[in-house]
Amino acid sequence: MKNLKYIFLVSIFALTLANAQSTSDTNFRKPVSETLKKIETVFNVTINDDRGLLKGKELDYADWRIEPGNLALSLTNILAPFELMYFKQPDGTYIIRKYENHKVSVDKGKERLFYLESLYSTKEEWEKRKTELKACMIASFGLEKAPPMPKSKPLLTPKRIYKDYSVENIALEILPGVYATGSIYKPYPFNKKSAVIITPDGHFGDGRYRKDEQYRCAMMAKMGAIVVGYDLFAWGESLLQFPEETHRNSIASTVQLLTGIRLLDYLATVKNADMTRVGVTGGSGGGSHTMFLSAIDDRVKVSAPVVMVSSHFSGGCPCESGRGIHLCGNGTNNAEISAMMAPKPQLIVSDGKDWTLAVPELEFPFIQRTYELYGKKDLVENAHFAKEGHDFGISKRMALYPFMAKYLNLDLNKVKNDKGEIDESTCVIEPKEKLLVFGDKGEKLPKNALKDINKLYEMFGEKNLKVYEVKK
């Protein structure tokens, strides 16, 4: 007992001494880590600096920045001078991270949704905000400054015919000398009006050549849709024109969105393409562009963003968040951008191991509220996979197929086996080489292909301000 009393007195003495040594003579300067320990005591929380971001950092008037009764403000006061942020974890602890404009904590996302809800409570109020958001997004992406699409014919490879579908690769000149590359999957035989589905690629390994993208394109084609899967900017065959590092230029986000728009322009000229039935779906970065395209292009009738709808994360790549569209309307987020699809059918696919972990409790009710303004609450659905991670895996595809069939009038029976199960086994997974339009070594790349990122910016009346280190 005496030992415990002794330890307690020593602790009090040490704390008192520390406070005594922090005076106006030193501007009450203290190590930030010490002030955060005091915050832990005051608010009964745990704060982890697991990346050592606070090492060696000191702050004037440190303890004075603690606001009793307001943990969020206290943490912000201490961390903001160093461009650091805090994130509340699911277990209630807090971690320290560098400031990122595209990422906040879940509780901050929740606060933002509460604020957005206060801006509109009627369909008319929402329609006004939606119009403002759409106009701002179009201006931020620079779409109104885009040169017209060249009148050149698309480059198409010979078709490969499989059971109930065909595949051909396409290169579409969407800007002078800038080619969007992808593959078109069509029902076979292709003899009647078919829905149109475009599926922008995401930041997954192997790009659009990977199995899960081939599966979903082939399956939806078998169900009766013309489906186009296409490369990201400076990914896949786009690398023949622009080096990998330019994928992180803000113009990438403009080109990727424009690719979706101009692919739809082209598909509108294809015989038997039913442009009254247009869908879009993509995962991760492709999920971002699914939301953007659905918000901006009124031709989209059905949308299915996968593992990307979030109020606290807007995409870590400038190809998603580099144009500042989330500053529109004095601040928006992907949950509100997703809600811009209302009242048209939308499937939001989420999981428990990425930034979509809180969708069922947080973002989905917010989006449902917007649909409810139209009396169409049932037209938005959430397929949540709590034990899964960031992918477009089979369970997510199995949620996608019935939804697209229901709202685009596709034949789901075309992809069912004798047991009545949706079966992907009849799809042919092609090697990368078969999915290329410019040849194995890029030998078929058109002579006018643009390879200068600066000239791409100039097309939009802008300058490229991003500087890269020269690789040796």
UniProtKB/TrEMBL annotation:
The keyword Lipid metabolism does not apply. It comes from the Bacteria. Keywords: Signal. InterPro entries: AB_hydrolase_fold, FrsA_esterase. Residues 1-20 form the signal peptide. This is Acetylxylan esterase.
